[in-house]
Amino acid sequence: MNFKRSIGYALGLFAAFGIFLFMQNRADAFLWFTQDKDTRTLNEANFAPVNEIGKNRVWVGTFQLVWNDFKNDIIKAPVKFEGGKSKLAEKLNKEGFTTADISDESYYKNKGIATPALKKEIEDGIKEKFNETSDILDNINWDSKSLVVYAMLKKDFEYLKEFVKLADGNFNNSKENVEYFGVKTEDEARELKDNLSVLFYNSNNDYAVKLITKGDDEVILYRTDDNKSLEKYIYDVNKKTEKFDGDKNFDKNDRLKVPFIKIDEMFNYDELCNKKIKGTNFEIQGAIQTVKFNLDNKGGSLKSEAALIMKMNLVPVEEIRNFDFSKPFVLILKEKDKEIPYFIADIKNDALLKKAE
Fold first, then answer.
1. Which of 4, 68, 236, 255 sits a CA distance of 20 to 30 A from 103?
2. Sheet containing 261-268, strands listed edge to edge, beginning at the edge strand earlier in sequence
3. Residue 26: helix, strand or coil by DSSP?
4. Helix, strand, coil proportions of the chain in percent (round to 5)?
5. What strands, in cross-sheet order, belong to the sheet with 164-170?
6. What is the reported pLDDT for 309?
């Protein structure tokens, strides 16, 4: 799959750390994501697996990273299950997200046999790189001698300036109020105009803005009533941004209202578990992913972990040993209890072999 073709400057490389939050089927729905400043072609393989929380959808690239390592470094082939196809596995096999899509300082990976030593190595690794601890390592049996493939994504970003904290209010007529930040006055608009770039404003229900950060991460907020696949949203934002010829500056008459976001979830991909992988002695015992994400008036942070745990040598079978000397071999003749042989033949071809009549 070639991801190098551009699909327009506005969306760039989605996978700065690849997490979506889309409030579906709501009059005030919006799409949130971040991206780096390159470009790529997008399709549904980029966003697997998509998780639902209520009517919301969340995707993060961590699980794809562990799948890639299992596929490429362990079994060295696409993952296929005995007894039937898995649509999720087929999407994951396409490697819609790889380490090429995120900076080296933003991820950590490791793999090996489940031992206390590997657990400590991972703990030391994420502590040294991110000053973080794990939320999933204690859930793994480190004396099981299973195979573990692990990854963590970690991102922190800040806006150029802090946004104003607005009054609490409901979200799409929700019963409970939520926290908001943004811009509510002309003075604030002038003060914070460099924090924002308008991508398009087609109507009061169809618009998108980009929040500028101090680093390479961009936060795009897309207001829509559509209910589409994640890749289609990115395509739509891209096309609408290209077509928009209005003012892309955030000016004194513009206003902004964004809810604080807080996600803390763990996902188990049961449909991938307890299935024998074709051509191997592996069976996936566990497929786990966590997402901790916060967005507020100062910026945002992401911490996501993923792990695949594989059982090996599933069924004890009687060993079949095939002593086949139909390929090059060495013949040694020696007397019993003598260390030095009296005859050696290194057989490389049929010149020394008796031909069949």
1. 236
2. 107-113, 147-158, 299-312, 282-295, 261-268
3. coil
4. 25, 35, 40
5. 164-170, 177-183, 256-259
6. 96
Dihedral Cα 6, 201, 261, 98, nearest 10 deg: 0
Contacts of 24 (CB under 8 A, 6+ apart): 55, 56, 57, 227
Confidence check: pLDDT of 351 > 80: no
Q: What CA–CA distance (Å, rounded) separates 123 from 306?
A: 14
Provide the pairing of β-strand 51-53 with 30-35: unpaired
| C-beta neighbour count of 2 within 10 angstroms | 6
Check: pTM over 0.70? Answer yes or no.
yes
Q: Is pLDDT at 46 greater than 60 in this prediction?
A: yes
Find the farthest-apart pair of alpha carbons in the chain and give their distance in angstroms, rounded.
102
Residue 329 has pLDDT above 90, yes or no: no
Mean local confidence (pLDDT), 335-339 = 69
Where is pLDDT greater, at 26 or 267? 267
pLDDT at residue 54 in the model = 83
pLDDT confidence of residue 163: 96
Q: 202, 188 in Cβ contact below 8 A?
A: no
Whole-angstrom distance, CA of residue 182 vs CA of residue 203: 19
Tokens of 303: 């911490």
Q: Is 292 helix (H, G, I), strand (E, B) or coil?
A: strand
Q: Quick check: 69 and 61 in contact, CB under 8 A?
A: no
Q: What single-letter amino acid sits at 39? A: T
Beta-sheet strands, E only, within 159-260: 164-170, 177-183, 196-203, 206-212, 218-223, 256-259
Kindly report, residue by residue over 291-308, the tens digit of the pLDDT. Answer: 998 999 999 999 999 999
Element (H, E) at 240: helix 230-243
SS3 39: coil
Contact between 32 and 295 (Cβ < 8 Å): yes
Encode pLDDT of 78-137 as tens digits. 999 998 889 999 999 999 889 988 999 999 999 999 999 999 999 999 999 999 999 999
